[in-house]
């Protein structure tokens, strides 16, 4: 059904010939010739301008696209553009009011009534057309270009009415308070991602707008808002108090990232990066975790009965493995009479490498996946990298047991590892409660054995109280445990510093690129998040 429309000719245009007189012809340029008043050959007369503008605007207002296009010098393009204006623009009624002509140009006002998904508004704007003489027909015609429809349309551009891409969503913390853009710099890309992912699930109504469609099909400038929409609400697990501590902690170091979560539920409490880039290293980073990974290696050894915390496992300065690769300790430290628990607390690489032969090639990889949930499809609520522990033999396996080689982790996965030790059961980290979208989270095949939980917690407490994490964790009370790490990265002069720890029902992990020793650079970051001084 064709929509109604009308044309209102301004008084100046309606009486254009009468008021222009002979002097009106001076507005045009070209060669003189022809009969009657002196009108340059090829130019249009005031009557041409009046009649052509009236017929074109009348046909367009009546939304008779073919007829309107016939009054232009590019009927095919005009037909397509006018049809798309009516159909894609969702225009139900059109009123066009011509103003005073200037030379061969006629300004006019557009009042377009738009309806979309039960919402509507009247869109008023000004445009103009110019009448020229057709090169082949000699007839006066509207010089066609998309800017006739709207002055902000460039060649080959159209417009459309639809839902805005950025559906309004108020992202809330765990207590229901809004997380405003800019209030926590590290969260800005996260909030943007959440709005894009959950905009249609947050209970709001998207803004309806008229936008430019570029020649390549991409969206351009918004020209008119039909309906403002209603913001939805998306509650997250984030804790603004913990987030502020995390932001402050990473701001003191270049290349720092940290994640904090609740071991009992897997709920993410804070995510922060000193680098404000769109790439979120805390959640999406893929890098060797160094000796923090010894938590998983120790779990593999303890659960398989290959070692006990009190068993003597010497810690020499260096050692080699199957194919002759030499492994060393930080600063070439050694302890010939160390127990396994002391090796763990001192982060002795050589002791762990010496035990690699007692583990099947896929042993650590299986433990990481089956118990700690590493490499499963985590559905956190935003894009994450969920860790990777490949199966390797030879020197590759020896490197893997100390968190080097092809093992890839990030602060999110290492915080989860510490949390799993704290509770004995893997709880997949979540940023958005599953009640929002009924998604299924990842689950591990089994939990840690009660004996392994007891042993690992004892070793991590020893590390926090008298091992490499003692300085960072000094004065922290409660149920605590920690592990440090220094990861060698090809092309870097200094190692990446790692630290993961828990205190009661909060676990956190941090990495500082080229930070050196884990306890010195990453330890203070985690400490500030868990228990600020």
Layout of secondary structure:
Elements: E1 5-8, H1 11-14, H2 16-20, H3 46-61, H4 65-69, H5 75-87, E2 91-98, E3 105-116, E4 119-133, E5 140-142, E6 158-163, E7 169-172, H6 188-198, E8 208-213, E9 219-227, E10 232-235, H7 240-251, E11 256-261, E12 268-273, H8 281-284, H9 294-303, E13 318-320, E14 326-328, H10 340-346, H11 349-354, H12 363-370, H13 394-400, H14 411-423, H15 450-466, H16 470-473, E15 480-487, E16 496-503, E17 506-512, H17 518-521, H18 523-530
Parallel strand pairs: 1-2, 7-10
Antiparallel strand pairs: 2-3, 3-4, 4-5, 6-8, 8-9, 11-12, 11-17, 13-14, 15-16, 16-17
Helix pairs in contact: 7-18, 9-12, 9-15, 10-15
Summarize the structure.
The protein is built from 18 helices and 17 strands. It is of the alpha+beta class and 533 residues long. The strands form 5 sheets. A 5-stranded mixed beta sheet has the order 1-2-3-4-5. A 5-stranded antiparallel beta sheet has the order 12-11-17-16-15, sandwiched between helices.
Would you give an account of this structure?
There is one protein chain. The protein is of the alpha+beta class. The chain is 29% helix and 21% strand. The chain is built from 18 helices and 17 strands. It has helices at residues 11-14, 16-20, 46-61, 65-69, 75-87, 188-198, 240-251, 281-284, 294-303, 340-346, 349-354, 363-370, 394-400, 411-423, 450-466, 470-473, 518-521, 523-530, and strands at residues 5-8, 91-98, 105-116, 119-133, 140-142, 158-163, 169-172, 208-213, 219-227, 232-235, 256-261, 268-273, 318-320, 326-328, 480-487, 496-503, 506-512. The chain has a five-stranded mixed beta sheet with strand order 1-2-3-4-5. The protein has a five-stranded antiparallel beta sheet with strand order 12-11-17-16-15, sandwiched between helices. Strand 11 (256-261) and strand 12 (268-273) form a beta hairpin. Helix 10 (340-346) packs across helix 15. The longest helix is centred in the C-terminal third of the chain and has 17 residues, at 450-466. The chain is elongated.
């Amino acid at each position: 059904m064709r929509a109604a429309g009308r044309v209102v000719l301004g008084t100046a245009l309606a009486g254009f010939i009468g008021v222009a007189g002979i002097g009106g012809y001076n507005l045009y340029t070209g060669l003189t010739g022809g009969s009657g008043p002196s009108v340059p050959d090829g130019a249009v007369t005031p009557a041409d301008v009046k009649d052509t503008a009236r017929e074109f605007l009348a046909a367009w207002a009546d939304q008779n696209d073919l007829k309107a296009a016939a009054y232009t010098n590019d009927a095919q393009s005009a037909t397509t553009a006018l049809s798309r204006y009516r159909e894609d623009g969702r225009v139900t009624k059109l009123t066009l009011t011509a103003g005073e002509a200037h030379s061969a140009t006629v300004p006019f006002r557009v009042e377009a009534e738009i309806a979309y998904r039960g919402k509507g508004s009247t869109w008023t704007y000004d445009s103009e057309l110019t009448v020229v003489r057709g090169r082949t027909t000699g007839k006066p015609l509207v010089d066609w270009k998309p800017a006739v429809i709207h002055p902000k349309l460039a060649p080959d551009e159209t417009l459309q009415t639809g839902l805005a891409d950025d559906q309004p969503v108020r992202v809330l913390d765990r207590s229901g308070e809004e997380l405003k853009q800019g209030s926590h710099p590290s969260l800005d890309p996260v909030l943007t991602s959440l709005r894009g992912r959950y905009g249609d699930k947050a209970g709001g109504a998207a803004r309806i707008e008229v936008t430019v469609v570029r020649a390549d099909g991409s969206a351009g400038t918004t020209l008119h808002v039909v309906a403002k929409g209603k913001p939805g609400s998306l509650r997250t697990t984030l804790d603004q108090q913990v987030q502020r501590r995390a932001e402050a902690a990473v701001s003191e170091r270049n290349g720092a990232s940290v994640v904090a979560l609740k071991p009992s539920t897997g709920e993410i409490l804070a995510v922060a990066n000193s680098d404000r880039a769109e790439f979120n290293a805390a959640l999406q980073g893929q890098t060797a975790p160094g000796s923090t990974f010894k938590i998983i290696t120790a779990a593999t050894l303890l659960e398989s009965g290959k070692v006990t915390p009190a068993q003597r496992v010497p810690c020499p300065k260096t050692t080699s493995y199957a194919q002759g690769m030499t492994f060393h300790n930080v600063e070439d430290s050694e302890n010939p009479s160390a127990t396994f628990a002391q090796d763990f607390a001192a982060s002795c690489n050589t002791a762990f490498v010496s035990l690699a032969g007692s583990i099947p090639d896929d042993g650590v990889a299986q433990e990481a996946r089956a118990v700690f949930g590493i490499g499963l499809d985590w559905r956190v609520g935003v894009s994450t990298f969920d860790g990777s522990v490949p199966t390797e033999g030879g020197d590759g396996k020896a490197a893997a047991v100390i968190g080097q080689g092809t093992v890839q982790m990030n602060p999110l996965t290492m915080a989860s590892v510490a949390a799993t030790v704290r509770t004995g059961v893997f709880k997949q980290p979540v940023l958005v409660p599953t009640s929002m979208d009924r998604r299924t989270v990842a689950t591990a095949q089994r939990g840690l054995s009660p004996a392994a939980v007891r042993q690992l917690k004892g070793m991590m407490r020893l590390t926090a109280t008298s091992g490499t994490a003692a300085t960072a964790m000094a004065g922290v009370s409660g149920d605590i445990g920690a592990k440090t790490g220094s990861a060698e990265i090809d092309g870097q002069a200094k190692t990446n510093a790692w630290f993961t720890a828990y205190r009661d029902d909060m676990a956190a992990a941090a990495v500082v690129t080229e930070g050196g020793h884990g306890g010195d650079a990453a330890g203070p970051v985690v400490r500030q998040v868990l228990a600020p001084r």
